[in-house]
Structures are given as C-alpha cells and as structure tokens.
C-alpha cells in the first residue's frame, strides 16, 4: 500500500504536465511553474465528488496510475479518458487536476503535522557542537526546503482534502 502513496505523491510532480491546457476560469498571478503547467491551485477546484473519485480509483484501479507514467496531453488515450469518466470526471485532464490538488493537500497536511518536530530538530542542530557548521547548514537548508515544498493549495480545497485525509492515508498503509 505504501507504493500507492509514493505513486500519488509523485503524481503531484508528474501530473502538471498532463494538464497543460489552461483553465479559462483560473486566470490569476500564480507560481510560474504552476501557471506554465496549467495547474493554478490558488482557485477552488475540488468537490467532494472529485475527491471520492480519486479515492475510488486508488482503491479499485491502483494499476491505472502505472499506465499514466510519462503521459503528456498528446498521449492521453481512450482508456484513460474512459476511466476518468467512469469515476465522475469530465475527462482525464479533470482527473489529473483533481489528483494533483489532492496530492498537494496531503503533502501540506503532512508537513503541518510534523512542523513542530522539524522545527525542534532544527533547534537541536543549532545546539549540537559535534556537527561541523557546513553540515548543519546543509541539513537545515534541506529541512527548510522540505517544510516549504510544493505550492499552497487554496483553503477550500485544503479543507476538503483534510476532511478525507483519514481515508486517503488508510489507502497507503
């Protein structure tokens, strides 16, 4: 089951390429990488039905995500479109955008959950006299990068992901 989590989280970085067509309703100033990928996560997008669809696909067709590796908008095939529609999405782009947002929401929830532990570890490094300063700096930089990784999902989508977080995490145990 952990491999499903790895696949889902890796999709957060793969799926932006799949949804490269821009949503006309999502015109705003956003992170350049998000804008370039057509995945503006600053606007509400998710619905309970979309999150339930993502959960259903993970439960019922976990192999589906393996077939999506390396997919670009030009290589989306009829099977991918059919699976997306079967689970209530308008098309594969809609499924990709939804899964991307769920992945970001899950990452943000995990980072928030462990933020105090990471901050305590950073403080502990400051007090550690045995670790060379350059190693401390490298470790602290990595922790800061991990804590600020990804994009900030809008509040509405984040709240929906958190509502289903228990179910999503259970899929990956």
Number of strands: 0
Could you tell me the radius of gyration in angstroms?
18 Å
- Secondary-structure element string: HHHHHHHHH
**Count of domain modules:** 1
Q: Classify the beta-strand content into a percent band.
A: under 5%
Ends apart, CA distance between termini: 5 Å
Structural class: mainly alpha
Helix proportion range: 55-70%
Question: Judging from the principal axes of the Cα atoms, what is the shape?
Answer: elongated
**What is the tally of helical segments?**
9
In terms of per-residue confidence, which ranges show pLDDT below 50 for 5 or more consecutive residues?
1-37
**pLDDT averaged residue by residue:** 77
User: Sheet with the most strands?
Assistant: none
Can you put this structure into words, describing what you see?
- By secondary structure, the chain is mostly helical.
- It has one domain (2-111, 151-170).
- 66% of the residues lie in helices and 0% in strands.
- It has nine helices and no strands.
- α1 (2-18) crosses α6, α3 (48-60) packs across α6 and α6 runs antiparallel to α7.
- The longest helix has 36 residues, at 92-127.
- It starts with a helix and ends with a helix.
Features:
single chain; 173 residues; mainly alpha; elongated
Short description:
The chain is mainly alpha-helical and 173 residues long. The chain has helices at residues 2-18, 32-37, 48-60, 64-67, 78-86, 92-127, 133-147, 155-163, 165-170.
Break the fold down into its secondary structure elements and pairings.
Elements: H1 2-18, H2 32-37, H3 48-60, H4 64-67, H5 78-86, H6 92-127, H7 133-147, H8 155-163, H9 165-170
